[in-house]
Protein 1
Amino acid sequence: MPTSTELLQGTLDLLILRTLSLEPMHGWGVAQRIQQVSKDALQIGQGSLYPALYRLEYKGWIKAEWGSSENNRRAKYYRLTAAGRKQLERELETWDRLTAAIGLVLGRSMEA
């Protein structure tokens, strides 16, 4: 089962941006959503998640605000910015080209 350290370089950013495109959420929620949607195939550790969130915030692709979590604890909630939405589109296009190229090299058709 791949962990965040085994993901392709830059893939974690793409996963976080995509997850936050659905709704704002706190960091733990981002990790849980990725794990849930991937059917437990991807598990993002705190040591990878939070540096990635800070990096994306520094780049202006996400914005953080303090709020209360489901259990009334103080938590930082992250949301995608307009620049983040544009970056997500660029990242998705790059991902599509990359996976298609890898599929060709592996002899696997990406078309159904």
Protein 2
Amino acid sequence: MGHVLSRMPAGVDVILVDDGSTDKTAEICRSYGGRVIKHPVNLGQGAAVITGFRACLLHEYDVIIELDGDGQHDPADIPRFVDTMKSTGVDIVVGSRILGSNYDGAPYARRTVLPYLTWLINQITGYELTDSMCGFRAFRTSSLRSIAHVLTEMQEPQYIAAEMFIRFSRAGLSVIEIPIDLSDRGTGLSYKGFVRYGWGISRAILRTLMEK
């Protein structure tokens, strides 16, 4: 966590959602001047993302950046996300590991299952994504605020990206991708196995589509 926070560009406010961790995540974040919102128990990635969105909407930020704290995403790329949003006028900018460096050690699920799931999400949403599951994203705050009711409808506890893109496309939000380079994971482990990864995303898509 510290190696990520130490590389944050000047002027960026940090809000960390601590999803029931038992280590020193919150303490480290505060030592770098960040604010911490702590879930008393682990609620899943989806719940953490929504908590972060709601916290950011309480402030007058122009752009909300979402990135992982395990070191795979380089905070130095944040200005590129912001500049792309400003120059294109889109609502969401998504980092693409496929357009950038989908490094050789990428999990099997990402190299094999992700392209098919991304294709399915594109068919449903009309988007033209190459990497629907990348967690490095930028959101125009005013756009999220205008559809705040959609955030309350989200139910997926873990694979929120699939549900998010479907709901955001229905709300009329526009999306563009930029290439990013992915580093090796600095801390933490992934527990998303091949079957769990594919089934989790598929379930999120089906559940969202079944809602009226």
